[in-house]
Batch of 2 targets.
Target 1
Amino acid sequence: MDKKRQQALGDALYEALRSQKTIAPFTDNGEPITLDDSYQISLRMLECRLRDGEKIVGKKIGVTSKTVQDMLGVHQPDFGFLTDAMEVEDGGNAKIEGNLISPRAEGEIAFLLKEDLIGPGVTDADVLAATEAIMPCFEIVDSRITDWKIKIEDTVADNASCGVYTLGKGRVDPKDLDLPNLKMKVYKNGEFLSEGMGSAVQGSPLTAVAWLANTLGEYGIVLKSNEVILSGSLVPLEPVVAGDEMYLELEGVGTSSIKFI
């Protein structure tokens, strides 16, 4: 796919984001598309957001757990960028109308970095050494692709289907924690919904972040000091509508909540 076409598709995703109108999957239009094409499309969409005044504050990996992969029919991780406009204050309100299309909530572990991670060659130990703290987190994924009919190329192009996110209460140095065995419990509207372990994401959240550093490293992208890295959902995705409230507890770390209006 030539650069002009990549830019046109990136512009189409940006317009879908701003208009809250979905577009057909790129993988269904009969035009060959590679993961490299998808990444370049996502960069064009990101460029448009940065022109609006947004700033990159982190990165994310998604579709890391088998449960989420089976739900979406996508069987390898995706990756994308976080901007300051995507963050919702913990306990705050996420507006759906005019902002989100078909949101789904994920409970995750977020990493706050104190050192750069430059792939390839990043290990779990490197991630641990570079992490200042982990935090409980909700990511609200949202697809600009019609009816979530995505393949890996579609979701990478669409900035890993990122909508908004929260960073919850509690920041803990992970060095003394058993991250694969950290338990998360998620509640919806005051009722228990689901639970999961840190091992749900590629066996360990450390492994997921290392994968992200190494994958983005192939494109010359660094996970930077002071950035937030979302490591993937420990639990099944949960559709949300206006009036819903999500709450989670990450054992030994803290809580996070978000309301939808």
Note: The chain has a mean pLDDT of 94.
Target 2
Amino acid sequence: MSGGAARRGAVRVGPVDRAFRFGIRRLVRGRLRGVWARGGPSGLWEPADDAPQVGGFVWAANHHGWWDGFVAAVPMWERARPLQVLVEPNSLARFSVLRRLGGVPANRVRDAVRTLRAGAAVVVFPEGELRPAGPLGPVRPGADWLVRASGRPAWAVATRVVLRGHQQPEAYLDFEPVADRSVGDVLRGRLDALDAELAASDPRSPLPGFREVVRGARSWDERLAAVRGREPA
């Protein structure tokens, strides 16, 4: 096991689970242009072997698209960061494969508290359901309860997977610490700000201040331009 995987909070991953994760990585890298992130706990986006341990934290995100859990998990897997995703129990029963990808029933909150205290991040969707893209919907109190019960910090993560000026959609993760405010208030404000930024941005360029944490597929015109750039003048 690598040094990163052996860190406190890490979960042993068997060969079948590794195969599923490989497939999800291929899916994200092949169907999205990339995943970009801004902010987050110090050292989160550095390789786990080269950065201090991040520690457990609540990752509270809006849930407005099919990709939301995957664009949270893949950047963390690639840095050997331990992570679990709370999934609505009925969805987990219908799609049991999600357990192999780190999904656990959302009603097992005390297990989530132990996971946080052990040093892993726990992804929570405070709306409690998949909702249409738009403003944040009504928020349930579970994320705030996890913070109080575990003593671990929370980060609101505005999440958007959007088709802009390229062939493939782009995923954006915009982090803001919750501190002494409610998760819902912080997440609502961060999501509104991200939407406004996307609406005013140059669609051909990544949003300023974000770093690419997973590189995906480039558009055919970008690939063509790269080939032409290698051709002799």
Note: The mean pLDDT is 90.
